[in-house]
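Q: Now give one record:
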Amino acid sequence: MDKEELFIKRIRELANMAYQRDITTFTDFLNLNERNILNGQNLHKLGVAVEGFGGYENAERQMVAFHPDALAFTWEYPIDCIRLEPKAVKFSEDLTHRDYLGAILNLGVDRSVVGDILIEDHAASFFCLRRMTDFFLENLCRVRHTTVVASKIKDPGDIPEPKLSPVTGTCASVRLDSLIALAFGTSRSSIVHCIEEGLVFVNGRLITSNGYEPKEGDIISVRKKGRFIFDGVTRQTKKGRLGVRILLYI
């Protein structure tokens, strides 16, 4: 049984458990490809509702919950948010997403126990499974050469929101390849292989057609490049090109 078959078997087991025991069950954090596979399983036919959340709205990595449609009691996702700050700001390095992720994984944990990582000035916050919170608080004390202090964010209002940078430009049409090329400042031809190789997702669903036309508000994710929100068409030029606005996650 390959990795995908094992994954499908596991999520169907979780869905069946939720239905048979009348409880809510949860996956670990799923990446875009896993979310796409899950979306194609029609799990509602098993008598359960399927909901995803990653600690904040529109998170890329999400935990999925399965629960019976008629479930009477309330529940919450077992997700915590941990903030990492340098012990001495003046001695801290300019750390990137890769630096923080590397420090986390170097503790010997699996990627599935960690959600999105949000970078701030001289700090970062990341989401994790609640059962891993104490482990990270006790053991995550260095990112590259910078000593950091880890603390749990207790007030949901203190959880940071991702930063969005507006990008504007013109396209001949609102095609997926055109929007990606504009977002990342590259040519349409260089984007074709990303789409054909299964690296592009719209709202968590795999899209392999260059000519696919996203709708306003759609979130486009390109693995190894980043993600953005298609914020809509703003105008039409005299030559018939469309002015579009994109909100790039930074």
Observations:
- The longest strand covers residues 226-236.
